[in-house]
Amino acid sequence: MTTGFECRNCSAHESRPLYASVPDRFHGFAGAFTYVSCARCALVQLEHIPANLGEFYADYRIHTGDSTAYRVLRRMTIGHCYLERPGHGKALLDIGCGNGAYIKEMAANGWKAAGYEFDPTHAAALSAQLGLPVISGEQALTDHAGQFDLVTFNFSFEHLDQPLRLLELATRCLRPGGEIYIAVPNIEGREAAIFKDRWFHLDPPRHVSFFTKQLLRQQLERNGFSEIETRDLAVPTGFAGSLSYRLWNRFQQATWYAGIVPGLLFSAVVRDGNFAISARRTA
Ligand SMILES: [Zn+2]
Q1: CA of 222 to the centre of ligand 1 (A)
Q2: How many Å lie between the centroid of ligand 1 and the Cα of residue 128?
């Protein structure tokens, strides 16, 4: 029995320990974080979210953008994880749009693209920079009910304190027949099993929960989605980052770059480091 714990999927109060006292190896901020799995539904999640979680996003690579080399490499290595197709004027909302690279690209590809970010200051600055709408706050999502043909969570769902609440709000943002696309790290994958608490995509405390294919499928069905499909996303960066954590106990840029080629080979065999689930709103 864990006191004060409430599962982010099923609200159960009992959990089992998984990884105790994991440091923030990516940014090296102080703290130790414990992941547990829910005793009822098995969702792996942070036992407690630090009260100062926002501070762990300072200089967050995904928000600050980065060098051209990093952007090119990122495009080459994880570009295939993103849903890309011509928009023909259809409307897209990307929840947790980060530095806005995806909505910018989709706008260029004919989409009426908008983003969502939790921090209103970041949202406003990004919107001004991109010339695209970036909304913030629950009310803004409610105000956009039924307005989008596609809603995406590109490696953002695992960051959410209240993932089911956001899924519900995102669902309401869709027109009937609209699509949802969620890409997340795969805690059930062999990459996660091999590297354990040094798995790059564990990323404490920024990664709060790890919904599995089965749990996401259940939640999508509950929210009135059908045509649910999943696909594995083979990504070399998980291996490269995990290698750095194994060797140096922290993120080391040179090791990360050097690990990309072996990471390509590794992820060609172990293809399940991340996955995407997509579905259509029918109700
Ligand atoms: Zn649970």
Answers
A1: 15
A2: 40
Position 3 in a domain: no
Does 226 reside within a domain? Answer: yes
The domain tally of the chain equals 1
Domain range for 264 is 15-281
Neighbours of ion ligand 1 (CB under 5 A): 7, 9-10, 12, 38, 40-41, 43
Distance 240 CA to ligand 1 centre (A): 31
Give the Å distance between the CA of 182 and the centre of ligand 1. 20
Name all contacts of 66-75 with Cβ < 8 Å and 24+ positions apart.
Answer: 71/101, 73/257, 73/260
Model confidence pLDDT, tens digit, residues 183-230: 999 999 999 999 999 999 999 999 999 999 999 999 999 999 999 999
Does any domain span residue 175?
Answer: yes
Q: Which residues lie closer than 8 Å to 88 by C-beta, 6 or more apart? A: 110
Per-residue pLDDT of 250-270, as tens digits, reads 999 999 999 999 999 999 999
Residue 193 lies in a domain: yes
Could you tell me which of 151, 272, 143 has the C-alpha nearest to residue 210? 272
Alpha helices of 22-67 — where are they, by DSSP H? 61-64
Distance from residue 1's CA to the centre of ligand 1 (Å): 13
| Ligand 1 centroid distance, CA of 163 (Å) | 12
CATH number (domain holding residue 274): 3.40.50.150
Task: Kindly give the distance from the C-alpha atom of residue 61 to the centroid of ligand 1, in angstroms, as a whole number.
Answer: 31
pTM: 0.94
Q: Are 153 and 96 in contact (CB under 8 A)?
A: yes
